[in-house]
Amino acid sequence: MFNSLWSRAPGVSFVAKRFKHEYAPRFKEVEKAQKGRVSVRTGGSIRGNTLEFGKIGLRLKSEGLRLHANQLIAADKVLKRELRPTKSTLITRFVCDLAVCIKGNMTRMGKGKGAFDHWATRMPTGKVLFEIKGSIHDKVAREALRKAADRLPGQYEIITPESQVRVSVTDLIDKPEPVNYLEKLNKNPTRKWANLQAFRTNPMYKKYSGRY
């Protein structure tokens, strides 16, 4: 089948492209969203505030804001241009899934929401936007991230795995040790978890497990 297709169209590539939805989700119908506000993490959450994949990254230092997809694309192009000679990998830590709708000026109130205009994403304080992975010199990576930050609104900082975790505009804390919640739950199980574990050790469950 694929040989016949290749003979008909030799210039067409059938290699699938993954992770191409960061700046425009692949939605068939655009769901309009309310304006909303950028969340302020008052509960002490640090999810997404540290490096997970790369050796150096770019993190938002100022107050949370809403970033336009075109602004992020401009920063992405700068980073890819700087990293192309080094064969390094650029990792994005966001998804532009917020549909922004705009109504024209001097428009009367009512008659529904405006038409779709562009995609955006909400970026809270301390969130990591880009990470760089690979064998790249530290000065080259920092210069690339600095140029990318110039394309974006707000203030940013360059971080490494040894950097502290930003919890607010002014406060930094040490990175906490990872918690093994499964081991913690096994030591002090709840009634629901204990019943589930007892059911899994049942020989009748093991006999028919994975059949359907």
Automatic annotation (TrEMBL):
<dbReference type="GO" id="GO:0003735">
    <property type="term" value="F:structural constituent of ribosome"/>
</dbReference>
<dbReference type="InterPro" id="IPR036920">
    <property type="entry name" value="Ribosomal_uL16_sf"/>
</dbReference>
<dbReference type="InterPro" id="IPR020798">
    <property type="entry name" value="Ribosomal_uL16_CS"/>
</dbReference>
<keyword id="KW-0687">Ribonucleoprotein</keyword>
<protein>
    <submittedName>
        <fullName>60S ribosomal protein L16, mitochondrial</fullName>
    </submittedName>
</protein>
<dbReference type="InterPro" id="IPR016180">
    <property type="entry name" value="Ribosomal_uL16_dom"/>
</dbReference>
<dbReference type="GO" id="GO:0005762">
    <property type="term" value="C:mitochondrial large ribosomal subunit"/>
</dbReference>
<dbReference type="Pfam" id="PF00252">
    <property type="entry name" value="Ribosomal_L16"/>
</dbReference>
<dbReference type="GO" id="GO:0032543">
    <property type="term" value="P:mitochondrial translation"/>
</dbReference>
<dbReference type="InterPro" id="IPR047873">
    <property type="entry name" value="Ribosomal_uL16"/>
</dbReference>
<keyword id="KW-0689">Ribosomal protein</keyword>
<dbReference type="InterPro" id="IPR000114">
    <property type="entry name" value="Ribosomal_uL16_bact-type"/>
</dbReference>
<dbReference type="GO" id="GO:0019843">
    <property type="term" value="F:rRNA binding"/>
</dbReference>
<comment type="similarity">
    <text>Belongs to the universal ribosomal protein uL16 family.</text>
</comment>
